[in-house]
Amino acid sequence: xxxxxxxxxxxxxxxxxxxxxxxxxxxxxxxxxxxxxxxxxxxxxxxxxxxxxxxxxxxxxxxxxxxxxxxxxxxxxxxxxxxxxxxxxxxxxxxxxxxxxxxxxxxxxxxxxxxxxxxxxxxxxxxxxxxxxxxxxxxxxxxxxxxxxxxxxxxxxxxxxxxxxxxxxxxxxxxxxxxxxxxxxxxxxxxxxxxxxxxxxxxxxxxxxxxxxxxxxxxxxxxxxxxxxxxxxxxxxxxxxxxxxxxxxxxxxxxxxxxxxxxxxxxxxxxxxxxxxxxxxxxxxxxxxxxxxxxxxxxxxxxxxxxxxxxxxxxxxxxxxxxxxxxxxxxxxxxxxxxxxxxxxxxxxxxxxxxxxxxxxxxxxxxxxxxxxxxxxxxxxxxxxxxxxxxxxxxxxxxxxxxxxxxxxxxxxxxxxxxxxxxxxxxxxxxxxxxxxxxxxxxxxxxxxxxxxxxxxxxxxxxxxxxxxxxxxxxxxxxxxxxxxxxxxxxxxxxxxxxxxxxxxxxxxxxxxxxxxxxxxxxxxxxxxxxxxxxxxxxxxxxxxxxxxxxxxxxxxxxxxxxxxxxxxxxxxxxxxxxxxxxxxxxxxxxxxxxxxxxxxxxxxxxxxxxxxxxxxxxxxxxxxxxxxxxxxxxxxxxxxxxxxxxxxxxxxx
Amino acid sequence: xxxxxxxxxxxxxxxxxxxxxxxxxxxxxxxxxxxxxxxxxxxxxxxxxxxxxxxxxxxxxxxxxxxxxxxxxxxxxxxxxxxxxxxxxxxxxxxxxxxxxxxxxxxxxxxxxxxxxxxxxxxxxxxxxxxxxxxxxxxxxxxxxxxxxxxxxxxxxxxxxxxxxxxxxxxxxxxxxxxxxxxxxxxxxxxxxxxxxxxxxxxxxxxxxxxxxxxxxxxxxxxxxxxxxxxxxxxxxxxxxxxxxxxxxxxxxxxxxxxxxxxxxxxxxxxxxxxxxxxxxxxxxxxxxxxxxxxxxxxxxxxxxxxxxxxxxxxxxxxxxxxxxxxxxxxxxxxxxxxxxxxxxxxxxxxxxxxxxxxxxxxxxxxxxxxxxxxxxxxxxxxxxxxxxxxxxxxxxxxxxxxxxxxxxxxxxxxxxxxxxxxxxxxxxxxxxxxxxxxxxxxxxxxxxxxxxxxxxxxxxxxxxxxxxxxxxxxxxxxxxxxxxxxxxxxxxxxxxxxxxxxxxxxxxxxxxxxxxxxxxxxxxxxxxxxxxxxxxxxxxxxxxxxxxxxxxxxxxxxxxxxxxxxxxxxxxxxxxxxxxxxxxxxxxxxxxxxxxxxxxxxxxxxxxxxxxxxxxxxxxxxxxxxxxxxxxxxxxxxxxxxxxxxxxxxxxx
Lengths: 654, 654
What we know:
Chain A is an alpha+beta fold. Chain A is built from 17 helices and 24 strands. In chain A, 34% of the residues lie in helices and 19% in strands.
């Protein structure tokens, strides 16, 4: 019996998933051993030379334990919340007394910074106590609350400790007393969506309908007009007329231009947009709201068919950190904030839970191995906020229209949203690997990452162990552990990049096409202990082309092998990467180089390169001469870990 | 005997040149009959819907004849000066009582706005009388003075009327009393060069060494340090520390980062740069200063070999309206201000006078027929400030990094520098056609424009008549009128775009290569009355390629025929112009279409176009299919005179 028609899959709890492989384990270790302590030091302003954070200090001031002045962005509090969420995920993987002690103290501090009425936001408590809830459009109070709620749920789920849940419940009580549809409350909703999905997480822990209803109010009220809530509050603030070019205050910047069901294209700030869409899926699933999920499907199509880079990057404009128009995907001025690709994973994961289509897991994979991982250096100590697909340092340094582009990762940012967002994702990676559909007795493997899990199916524990050198190697071995023989389905994602997947069960060849459904090979049988599945996903180097409406990429190819998008870098190929081209039939070979970039598979092949001309003329009618030239491509995520230089994902096709 | 080794050629006086052809005459008529009255109305705020100018009103306030408040940019006065200069050139071509009466009244008003000490700048007189000469870096007082001096010389040369010369001499006296190397004076020089070349023009009229010496001071003092003059005056103004990203106040923005002889690359604001270089040539020529001219040669090479668009556009960055780095020439974000290409003509003309190399006249031609003419609509009523080489309207409308790009010409601009600059150039076009070298008995024809002139050579009047349908037709007929048979040289420019020029004199074929020197065919003979030269410059359509260091243009060609650079426009070729490509051997044909865009020669041929794909996938591994497709190109200068749409100069080469 299927109770919820919109809910099909349930992700396996993070605590039940062990990651143990050569690719991700070291990154999770990096998060735990390097990034969490580094970020904690940053929050405490203990990193010499880094931009100040002042986050902990702000909480101390709010708690009455410091006399300093508030410093930082209006959303500075969220840095602590994101750190705490990462800690929660990390503790879910493995408890750690020392870390828990630090986190508990931080939670105590948060508690002391909370006002007696439940209000909790150090910016307003300390710097502008008279301006609480007067500017929902810009002021991030609900955004910070959302991140704190997410942290609370993660920490509670990992440790069972109730205190931070109590703090955020009290905060939500307060929010609910101020905002809502009832007479006497403000009908406001956040300029930066985030609390919607957080409230849905909290609701799952508390079962308190208040949490569900508040989320519903924020989503349903969004974009209602006339009058528009942002205009009402702006008038009350006596806000001056803005420059008409100041699109920051246009409603679409924060997806408040229309009621959510009427939004057909992804507009405005890309992180805001995808946090909102994620919350919409959660709410739609809970309320079985088909019209709301249909809006999400339409937005999904728009983002992934018209507005997404091959790296899973989204938001092609630095100005407003926003989407622009269909197919406007410049490579050298891609904004493609790391956080936006992370938000894409959140959204895709939620869509996958209700749609059971590998397309969503494919996008998770695309973002994860490319546009997200590029945000962090191999040593975990420096970060990209912006992830362009093409960089010429000399131009970047001299063109103001590229001011957001960096070609060296930075140690921290004044607005430090991406580094902690990246670490919370990597720490919680386990939750994106498996899910199950109990009534159908299905276990899904979405991502091929070595390790194991246990899924309870029909009252029995099913152990799943993956062994693989993915993403470098095409082979994935899955082993089943089970006490009693039992019939159920193992659904293996068949990535869209793979043209000829092969499957054997206990050395018996399976006809993949006959068992494929929406991108999953569904192997239904009576499984017994130690049954083995061998999945082979052949990974030839593919030349990928973009839809010709993406004008920037016409006449170009990108190299992809398996889930990994490649780029060419100056360190391997010399200057003027644009002078390099590949023939449609170029022979390309791959090799794993264990000493390069901490071990990556590289692609090499014979390309062409424009011969330098002898004339000093800028323009001439002679033909351009080409010479054969070795081309070497490295995984995009690993660029800018050597000497700064040019980089390009897209290569001219000759 | 050659008195001045650095001065070789002398341009023929504007009054002696008649333009009478089917291409330029109508444009000069447009300037006289439409643009001058339109601009006069604009200066008087008499154009409904146009942005306010307030220029005349500002002069009236300064003269004590109005009680309004100053409105406009700090350099608003220069709009009147540029208009007056245009009027001067127009009157040099043909006197006009009514126009002269209006101009005389404007001059009277200017005179009344001048203070008794000679000071003349309405912005400071009216709005900030206490701030005169306190911010030479930013405040344009010398820039406005320069334009007024240029206007004065033009008006005086056309009419012989002295009044405006007296006004500007009094102004220069005042400037000379404030600025200069002598003790007690400020050692300042203009942030926006312009007065240097103007003073050299004035010096030629007045013979007053004061004018020469002031120019010399401004050029020699430029960039001297430490301390730098701009720092001295900033300190006196108690200027606050600027944002380190505020490059407007960096010294290279106004070419004051180094003494002029040490400037090896063209930096900063492109119009400022080229006005400075023009003044440098004038001064070097007058003073026979070889090291100064050598600096100009080096800068010329940098601009024309590394930093110039195929249209003669310069200044590739909207931010600071500036040069960036070598070969950074993006097409869609080209700034290429109309004024900068005009300045390129000024500079090239001066270089030509001392270097006698067709390269300079070639650049004049390139700028004139392409990047300059594109600045004005065919009806003369709307203007481009910025002249990009590629435009996609939907993207332009949604990307902030393209905010300066327009795809529809505007009726006027708040900062209205380009329209009057364009009209003064077209009105004075006659001066760029011919020059003479008296001691060598040479008459040069630099530009092929129908009409006639009279050159005094060795005491004899030599009449030269050109008949041609240039730039559409390859044939130029030159006829000599002379009273007595006489030996001299007619030097005809052989444009670099022309591979096989042919010359006949009185039907006798001349071996062009044997008489060619630095791009000129020098025909030396005893000329008699009615001698005829037939010059044929074959104009096949050429596929032009850019130096591969111009990464934006790798794999692309531009179409050029004769001096005209072509573009493809959406009106002729449909949407997504980037999907169009040309084969290296595409057969291209030309036809004059008299009803299209007021009569232009178009290029048509068979190209390829990417077939729209059926899949809705953004990225795929299938090949791209091409279909044959007619391509039609129009002259770049004539784009955006129909329905707004896409445009591209560079086309992919398949």
